[in-house]
Amino acid sequence: MATTIIQGFELRTAMTAPYLDFWFDFASTYSYPAIMRVGALARREAVAVNFRPFLLGPIFKTQGWNTSPFNLYAAKGRHMWRDLERTCAGLGLEFRRPEPFPQSSVLAARIALVGLGDKWGEDFCRAVFTAEFAEGRRIDEPETMRGILEGLSADTVAVLEAAQTTAIKDRLRAETAKAQELEVFGAPSFCTADGELFWGNDRLEAALAWAKRTG
Amino acid sequence: MATTIIQGFELRTAMTAPYLDFWFDFASTYSYPAIMRVGALARREAVAVNFRPFLLGPIFKTQGWNTSPFNLYAAKGRHMWRDLERTCAGLGLEFRRPEPFPQSSVLAARIALVGLGDKWGEDFCRAVFTAEFAEGRRIDEPETMRGILEGLSADTVAVLEAAQTTAIKDRLRAETAKAQELEVFGAPSFCTADGELFWGNDRLEAALAWAKRTG
After folding, report:
1. Are A9 and A201 in contact (CB under 8 A)?
2. What is the ipTM of this complex?
3. B83 and chain A in contact, CB less than 8 A
4. pTM for this one?
5. DSSP percent split of chain B into helix, strand, coil, nearest 5
6. A85 close to B (CB below 8 A)
């Protein structure tokens, strides 16, 4: 745990308050139930959750995959769609299979990085997953992004411009590199302050409990 | 649901009592916590569970894999070992990483098929997983199998002979083919009477609930 001295004050307490990094890709199927669940569970456990969108594509490429493994391995893919449907039904979440799958998540991830520096970031993230997995909308179309931003307290034109700056593009690349450095190989993934990695919507509770105990 | 008429009696009730097929490979890591949990959970839900050992190897081969995906994808493998360790700790189960991994499960599966036609089959299955994942013993060595059988009410010599008969070898091949036909792509997997497939130790509860509701 890092201890930083700023103007004579130890920030140990602030820096080691329980937190969890929540790594997700907007195209990732099980990131949908995870992002819809994480807020309430994290509040209950008093764990701060950092939303960290990244891109799975470059990580899949290093594993030799040019698309989702759910497309490459047909039986695994068919089970996943059925299982996701059952999981969403169990949570009372609307579900509609996105077509095509996967959709490029680059634009959504860049906008999210803009928004997570502002107040509307987390709402934007949830709205993107709802558009994609509940409403059958295309998240790779700027029109969908525009519609979502207009429903939030965001300056749509300014945000879409900011999302295309080199600074934001570089930041998304750096976040993806960081995820890979942490050995993230799928999404959602959860990483604690002491470096424990948990993969999958099924591990959200365990990751929060770990963060709380060791944070 | 099949209804069979035998000598004028409808067997509908007997044939549709809730049951769940539990497909596992003795080399499969998450089959270890699953097999140690399934008995008590199934009794609580009043669901009959059929132990169905099979071989993942031939199924992995059709996916282009010559060994476990946990060996082929290093980050995924490292996460799995750590996650399995955490899972076992949470359940109070001893855990020791098998070396080498995976070990051939052919001999254990053949003996299990002999035993599951007798009283000692399920105890044998659990004992094999304990030997492999708690005690660091080699399940691909006949000596380990002999030791386990001697601790059960089995005629060791007769059983080892039966396990090498063409009938049992063919049966294991047929079970593996059946698993593939059901679209089993990993282990453990659970399959209900109405054809729902659930993959993974994490889905055991959901599979039992489904079997109970629809059985």
Report:
1. no
2. 0.90
3. yes
4. 0.91
5. 55, 10, 35
6. no
